[in-house]
Amino acid sequence: MTIHILILGGGAAGILTALKLSAIKSKYGLEVTLVDPKTYFEYTPGIVAVLGTPLDKLEKKYQEITQDYQELLGSWGVNFIQDEVEEVQQSEVILKSQKRLTYTYLIVATGSSYPSPFKPTSTETTYAERLKALKEDRASLESASRVLCVGLGPVGIEMAGELIGTKDLSVIHGSDEVLPGIGGGRLGEKVLSVLKQNDVNLILGEKAEEKSPESFSTVRTFVTDKTRQSVEVEKVYISTGLTPNTKCLEKNFSSFLNKGFVRVNEYFQIPDHSQIFCIGDIIDIGEQKLYFTAHMQAMHLFKNITNLLASQAKGQEPELMPYLGVRLAMVLSIGPSRGIAFIDPVLNVVGFGRGSYIAGAMKWCIERITMHPSTKILVNEVLYFIQKHRSPALKPKDD
Ligand SMILES: Cc1cc2nc3c(=O)[nH]c(=O)nc-3n(C[C@H](O)[C@H](O)[C@H](O)COP(=O)(O)OP(=O)(O)OC[C@H]3O[C@@H](n4cnc5c(N)ncnc54)[C@H](O)[C@@H]3O)c2cc1C
């Protein structure tokens, strides 16, 4: 009997899971299908560098971080359906096209949304549409002299890093701290010192609100909530946080949603629904929402699914391994060639001046590895092995 494994979402978690499952397809008689509303895979951590690339070189840069799903998955024997999942049910999902897909096991990896242009919008489902939107964004950046970044999380840091020295830059961040606690606070301190040394108009501990624009004016005005400072710019990037893409679970699994994030058990299953697994940005666990953690969760889920299938084949009860989290590894770019990095527990790479060339090179290497399926699998195998043999980052559950 064929076992249908259906993966919703082809981002960090979904793609790695699909590639891993393809290797055990024939052994266990699997049919693996991935659904995504877009026709292309986009490597999200590479998008800020694309936004920072001059218009005439942008397409080449963007090509480097995208892959066509049909080509990528087809060559690994995974079916691809371009559609959006609207509703998850007990044994099937309903797509926007009203088509229904049944499953034996479901892996929900629908990730998160971020304000444009950081992630594709619902109208950027083809490569051409997305490229056009990115070019338009870049053109508007090139014609702007004053730019505002709202939010100094990892995305805001990278965006501000791209703009330093090229624009009259303002940054408004809702907290006094940046990357709190990461690397003993050294990474955040480094970011602040880079911004200050480069004459960035930095406003910390305040929230920004946009005043209604004057008609026909290209200038946008933002006012801060405490000291009422006014910032006038032609271009703004908002990166104040992510929104989990879990609308498809709202109808039948709302009791497992916490502010939109899915509550899962230590095996990534929705409690009492052992055939439904959720991984990546959508899950409600005490772990940073990162590409790296999404990959490690995919690796762990793959091991558990393999155990499940092997036990089933022998008619035995499956023994699943609890996920105990991974130690943080974070590499952020500050402009095209520099960056900062932290590898828990001890390695801080902050460099001198505008940041470390080593961290910049690490960011580039990670991108190249991620865009090459076989290398991505191999490297994640090694990283998962290392993580598994370190002390757990999350507390084991009592029950
Ligand atoms: C600009 C930016 C830069 C970042 N940089 C870094 C970095 O340098 N390092 C790092 O570790 N992390 C970084 N992150 C975070 C990282 O990208 C995410 O944590 C990671 O991509 C999460 O993976 P995921 O698979 O859960 O979701 P995603 O990668 O968001 O993928 C989700 C997929 O699901 C699809 N989908 C959505 N809804 C549906 C639906 N209803 N039906 C079917 N498919 C659906 C989407 O189209 C998408 O392809 C960055 C994030 C952003 C926004």
TrEMBL record:
Family: Belongs to the FAD-dependent oxidoreductase family.
Lineage per the UniProt record: Eukaryota, Fungi, Fungi incertae sedis, Zoopagomycota, Entomophthoromycotina
Every FAD/NAD(P)-binding domain range: 4-298
Domain of life: Eukaryota
Keyword annotations of the record: FAD, Flavoprotein, Oxidoreductase
Organism whose genome encodes this protein: Basidiobolus ranarum
Pfam families (UniProt xref): Pyr_redox_2 (PF07992)
Protein name from the UniProt record: FAD/NAD(P)-binding domain-containing protein
